[in-house]
Amino acid sequence: MQKRRQVWLMLLVSVLLIMPYQTVGATGKIPDPQPMGQVSFDGAQMEALPAPGNSTTPGTWFIGATPANADLSKPPIVFVQGLHSRAQSWWEETNYHGVNDMYETAYNKGYRTAFVQLYDAPGGDAATPMDNGRLLAGMLEKIYNHFGQKVNIVAHSKGGPDSQAALIHYGAYRYVNKVVTLGSPHEGSHLADLAYSSWAGWLAALLGKQDPGTYSLQVGEMAKYRAQTDNHANARLNKYYTAAGTSWGPTFSALALGGAYLSQYGENDGLVNVWSTDLPYGTHLFTASDLDHDEIRIGRAVFSKIESVLRTATATSATEPKASQPSAAVNSADKQETFVRGGALPISKQLVQQVPVEPGVKEAIFTVRTKAADTQVTLVSPSGKVLKPVLKSKDQAFFRGATVQVIRVAKPEAGNWQVKLLSKQKDAYLLTTHFMGKATVELDLPALNKQSSAELKLKGLESVDLASLTGKIKVVDPQGQVKEMALNKTKKADATLTGAVSGSQAGVYNITVELSGKTKDGQPYARTLVKSVYIGK
């Protein structure tokens, strides 16, 4: 009997030794995706990497565990993340909503999965869609060969333009059936415009966040990208589906602050306006009022909304939802409700910035971004009331790593408010004041060539003394040089201000328009308008 037990024990040990070893995944339920290899920066195949799958090396691609209920009739899904993100974002913590269960959800639904590392993954500079697209194209070919069939792509945020570059410009369309983009800025984001404006340059440079990837998301830069991409012969060789959200995330979060800023341009998810998520040859699946830019990539929140698209290789009316329409674009006449200032902060010397607030503002949100976490911020009302920030947090978006301090004032007193800043070290700041309940001016910038005029049309200024209104333009050219010029007031009844915006070279020009004057009852009035445009050849 003892000898028989020993034989059975030896057999059991032998079986255990030859069984494949699997680690418990981030969710505690399924194994982590395993790296299958790398694609080098020039697209060549590199030597396979050993498990486990924690590499952030650009060009690494991961294969998820094969579900026990795997349905081979369903195309594998390749997940592509957004700006400054990495493959692990599909199964690790999100910024605001806990663990992303997208990988787990797809696994439980019987889908085979793959994940990719783009140039953004190590945490340094983000890359342009063209650069990421070239790298992604090489990985898509290897993933296609691994599965032996075409895949569907689910892309979040900038992963949408990155995926399009791979398919359209680098020929990877042959490895893909469909592409679903979640909150992707196909037309750019005005927050990227703000990051590259003349006022924000100090802080963005100090944070090291002025990189090619962020630069590429300016509205003007994406207009150039769309012209190159949408007219390409490969543009319609894959089926594209788009989705958007209109929630701004938790109160006082970076998304909430971004949403307030972007509300000038229409509905948004805290980082991207709904109109920017659309593609002229795509099918818009939904615009969800309960999803912000962080949550729209989470499995439990969105997979059921997109699965009917993912379960097949081709579009079929019987399985796919009826397309909806995204919000209409409003960037042809952008409503502006913001005052912006920024620059260097002196060491141990208080800087005071005045913020004019006119009567009738329902709420003013004063937001200060700095690099240092201990910069002192104080707000003083025209009557001398002192207010302190109600929240201090870290920006997770275009000014990632910046300390954000917020002061929110309901029905603010009219007059000049003072924002006082004191830093004990080398620092820079960006101050944005968002005026809720005020939509007073519209900026119309047509398509520009090397010599064009930007015409500023003022509407809804019944309370403003138009005779006192003045304006100037600051233009940041493609080389980062700043040029300032005055706006000329016309004698038209609508009090139009005009100014010539010209460039000696093709590229993106970031334009900041400053308006100042007084209301009819003598109170100060000011607005800042920021927008980028592409000036062609």
Automatic annotation (TrEMBL):
UniProt entry keywords in alphabetical sequence: Hydrolase
Composition skew (Polar residues), residue ranges: 314-330
GO MF annotations in UniProt: hydrolase activity
Lineage top rank: taxon: Bacteria
InterPro entries given in the database record: AB_hydrolase_fold
Keyword Hydrolase in annotation: yes
Keyword DNA-binding part of the UniProt annotation: no
Span list, region Disordered: 314-333
Name of the protein in question: Triacylglycerol esterase/lipase EstA (Alpha/beta hydrolase family)
Organism expressing this protein natively: Laceyella sediminis
